[in-house]
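Recall from the previous chapter that SMILES is a line notation for molecules. Here it describes fe (ii) ion.
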Amino acid sequence: MPAVTDRSLPEGMAWDGIGVLIAQHRQVAAIWERLEGSAGIIPDDRRWAMSAELLKRLSIHDGVEEVYLYPMVRSALLEGDELADQAQASHHEQARRLSVLEGLGPEDPGFEVGWAELMAEVSRHVTMEEREIFPRLLQSVDRLTLTLLAGRIQRASRVGPTRPHPRMHQSRLLGRATAPVIGAMDRLKDATRSRPTEGAGEPSESTRP
Ligand SMILES: [Fe+2]
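With both inputs in hand, we obtain:
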């Protein structure tokens, strides 16, 4: 798997908070493009590494949006509550599906269809954010705030949760205070279970989660 860096900003996008979130969307899509339909073509240990990287990146992205994006959407947009409610319901559904996939490897029944269903939900969510939420934020929020948001998202991406927490999403307990604590626990688990790390491509050994 090619290293997907956090600096893969789409052409023409400003390096602000919205640009960083769109870059994260593109990174997830790039990994899925390789994983989808790869059974029998790519070895299972590499497919497991890709699925683990997807799970991690989706969990990190969901966490930073919960902590930084949706509070901004609620406060800055007239219809912000409605849009944030819709997006957070999708996050809860994604976290629920991810928590099932966390225990599955490529050889397990349910892996293929589970990932396909999850990524269909992710695709709907990304479309909604990029068409409904981001353009409105770019019109309503000043440039400095959006630039500062980029730094906050990058810092939160380094310390936030790397695993799905559907109950946290449901009860909205994932906040600025709790995310780093949950993230530290996740990263400890990641280290002890030899999961792939960001940008590392395939792990040295294909230890299952
Ligand atoms: Fe997003």
